[in-house]
Amino acid sequence: xxxxxxxTCPPTSNITMVTWKISPKVGGPCTLGYRADQNKTDxxxxxxxxxxxxxxxxxxxxxxxxxxxxxxxxxTCEVAAAERNFEETYHLTVLVPPRLxxxxxxxxxxxxxxAAGKPAAQISWVLENNSTPKEEGHDNGTVTVLxxxxxxxxNVTNTTCIVSHPAGNQSKSIAC
Length: 176
Description:
CATH topology of the largest domain: Immunoglobulin-like
Protein name: MOR1B protein
GO biological process, one term: regulation of neuroinflammatory response
Number of strands: 15
CATH class of the largest domain: Mainly Beta
Organism: Nyctibius bracteatus (Rufous potoo)
CATH architecture of the largest domain: Sandwich
Membrane topology: Single-pass membrane protein
GO molecular function: signaling receptor activity
Strand order of the largest sheet: 4-3-2-7-8
Mean pLDDT: 90
Helix content: under 10%
Radius of gyration: 23 Å
Low-confidence stretches: none
Largest sheet: 5 strands, antiparallel
Number of domains: 2
């Protein structure tokens, strides 16, 4: 989320036509097109965040500015050239890093929350405990995971929560 990835379509000489066909998981399809004989670009139902990275006659790469969950889906570049035609398809998955919060509950137990991540984060604790994480799904495809630390021994003063996620790992410590 928030990055601006560039999807490449191998450039070739003597391009006749280039078409990016985009089928997001949410919302309708869109296309970006370029015709060399008219030196003309065309866009149908594409948001402003989807555009050519450079001039399509030189490099038909597609840039997605400030990628969001709504950009997930299939991206196919079709190129017609004098010597051959080809296509390249990408399946874009968007990772959302969770927001990590660590606090003490009313009973003095540490609670670790990895909020609104995609996919769901994994929570673990530095010290052994018998907690079972709870997951709550959200409409936008993100998941909040909550884990309450319950120690086997009562003399625990400081503990660390570790959140593992494909977009990056995080940890926080607390004394309750």
